[in-house]
Amino acid sequence: MKTIFGLKQFKQAVEQSSDAIFITNRRGFIEYINPAFERMTGFNRAEILGKKPGIIKSGLHDRRFYLNLWKTIASGKTFRDTLINKKKNGALFYVDHTITPIKNSHGEIINFIGIWKDVTEYKKLEKVKDDFLNIAAHELKTPITSIKVYSQMMENGIARTRDEKLQSYYQKLKNHIDRLTNLVHELLDTTRITTGKLSLFKELFSIEDLVRKTVREVEEIYQVNNFRIIADKDIRIRADRNKLGQVILNFLTNALKYSPPNSEIVIRLSFDKSNVILSVKDKGIGIPPKYHQKIFERYFQVETAIKSKDLSMGLGLYISSSIIKAHKGKIWVESKEGKGSTLYFSLPFVEK
Ligand code: ADP
Question: pTM of this prediction?
Answer without folding.
Answer: 0.76
